[in-house]
Amino acid sequence: PVVPPPSTPHGDMAEILPSLPLETRCPPFHLRLYNGFWQPEIVLVDIPDIHTAHLREDILLASFPKSGTTWLKALAFATANRAMYSPSDAQHPLRRRNPHDCVRFLEAGAADDADELHAPPVLLAATHLPYSMLPERITGEGSRSRIVYICRNPKDVLVSGWIFTRKAQEAGGEGKESSSYTLQEAFDLFCEGRCVNGPHWQHALEYWAESLERPGKVLFLRYEEMVREPASNLRKLAAFMGCAFSREEEDAGVVDAIVELCSLPKLKAMGVNRNGINYLSVKNELYFRKGVTGDWTNHLTPEMITRLDEIVDAALQGSGLDL
Ligand code: A3P
């Protein structure tokens, strides 16, 4: 179907929507194929507003769902606000709020209680949108916004997403009924790119290409490297955000303190993340599971691994990106 290019105002989406290819097998959303990506209908209808909103985003945290978004939000928030909230502060917002309630998604509306957190020196926002669907005020030549992308191995993304979806379904259904969404179903849809913001590899590829073209504009981080070397990746993130750690901060152990505050065991153990629900109406505990690399080896069959690897390798050929 003929659709408007992503950088222009997106016309009347409600009118365009019914003409777009539909996918209903991917819980919990109905997806439509728009400009090469499968998007939830509820996001697509908001695209024109997202593009024309009078907002300022200094740093946009971008990711494919289940790639470490929550972690990146926590790290960027703690880093940007460290002058106001020391990572060891008992009243630190990350001890009281889920990271998603500290940094909101572009596509999930404005925060009702944004004033509760003082305006930080660096304004943060997040998105799962593909690069080609971002507003001009962020990607345009005159824009001062910068983008941090976190990329994760697609097999881990698939497994993490499947488990998250099942748990969310079970939590939504009075907590009693076990979900019938099978790994095979999730796998087949994922391989066809039929998942929120899929195909995964095209999503990563767009940000990758832009990070090569404009390295000062887009920082491309890898979940696996962050797990291996959190402190050095945090330093890279802070420098890119324009708030590098000083010698004094290094000597005082601020880097390690932020890494520790944002670590999976620490965040997972916090009361708010064990019992709370975030502004997306999702139970906070669902965002914290194993946080390791390679958990796919415990779930995927050799046939699944071969099939997905072949699809991804073919799609990335010649790009220099290795997933
Ligand atoms: P697993 O399901 O593989 O454990 P997202 O935040 O994009 O939804 O991604 C969720 C994934 O990030 C989950 O992966 C989750 O466990 C992991 N994660 C959440 N917080 C993390 C943290 N502080 N450090 C490392 N991984 C984290």
Word description of this protein:
- The chain has helices at residues 13-16, 41-44, 47-52, 69-80, 93-96, 136-139, 154-172, 183-191, 200-213, 223-228, 230-240, 247-251, 254-261, 264-269, 271-275, 302-316; strands at 22-23, 31-34, 37-40, 59-63, 124-127, 146-151, 218-222.
- The protein is α/β, with parallel strands linked by helices and 323 residues long.
- The strands form 2 sheets. Strands 5-4-6-7 form a 4-stranded parallel beta sheet, sandwiched between helices.
- It is globular, with a radius of gyration of 19 Å.
- It binds adenosine-3'-5'-diphosphate (A3P).
Number of helices: 16
Quaternary form = single chain
| Average pLDDT metric | 92
Helix content: 40-55%
Shape: globular
- Percentage beta strand: 5-15%
Sheet of most strands: 4 strands, parallel
Small molecules held by this entry: adenosine-3'-5'-diphosphate
What is the terminal separation in angstroms?
Answer: 30 Å
Order of helices and strands: HEEEHHEHHEHEHHHEHHHHHHH
Give the strand tally.
7
Radius of gyration: 19 Å
Q: Which runs of at least 5 residues are low in confidence (pLDDT < 50)?
A: none
Class inferred from helices and paired strands: alpha/beta
Task: Jot down its keywords.
single chain; 323 residues; alpha/beta; 4-stranded parallel beta sheet; 3-stranded antiparallel beta sheet; 16 helices; 7 strands; 41% helix; 9% strand; globular; binds adenosine-3'-5'-diphosphate
Strand-helix topology:
Blueprint (H helix, E strand, L loop, with lengths): L12 H4 L5 E2 L7 E4 L2 E4 H4 L2 H6 L6 E5 L5 H12 L12 H4 L27 E4 L8 H4 L6 E6 L2 H19 L10 H9 L8 H14 L4 E5 H6 L1 H11 L6 H5 L2 H8 L2 H6 L1 H5 L26 H15 L7
Parallel strand pairs: 4-5, 4-6, 6-7
Antiparallel strand pairs: 1-2, 2-3
The structure holds adenosine-3'-5'-diphosphate.
The site of adenosine-3'-5'-diphosphate has 21 residues, from helix 4, helix 7 and helix 14.
